[in-house]
User: What shape does this take?
Amino acid sequence: MTDILIFILLAIVIVAFSILAVTSKHVIRSAVYLLFVLLGTAGLYLMLNYHFLFAVQIAVYAGGIMVLFIMAIFLTHQPGENVRKKTNWKIVSSSLLSITGIALCGYIIVKNINRIATFARGEEIDMQNIGMAMMGTEKYQYLLPFEVISVLLLACIVGAIMIARKDKEEEKHDHIKTRIEELKDKSENNKENKI
Assistant: This one.
């Protein structure tokens, strides 16, 4: 009974903070709400006795990826600025796609509920088997996708830095142009005053 109550509590937390992450107008708040979603997902892994996935979820996603997100936000946006309001057709189309996705997920869950319940009752997977699957190079082992994702994250970091640098250079050029115009105006005023 307590397992069901804890699951319901975690599900409510995940759903509520997912909705808040998507609907919040402040980017930093959205990132913090996403952090709570990731922590709730880690709680689900802990309930299933997947201690390794729980630790990975906390360390990699709630720790590393969230730091990456927040760093990218600070590099590319002003964190206090509000997000621009979307046009009506974007809101309608995204709502329709969301409802379609929820219906598809519900259909898949209902069709496979017996398989999920049977699989979830299994024993915890041995750490050595997880390590071999993650770092192996044979068929159904994940060293290559793991490295591809790390290169993708590196490209995202470099892209965020380049975007931030470009914005700062534009601001610098705008400031220089404004200062030059001010100096021209002052010199014209001084010429008029002398005459």
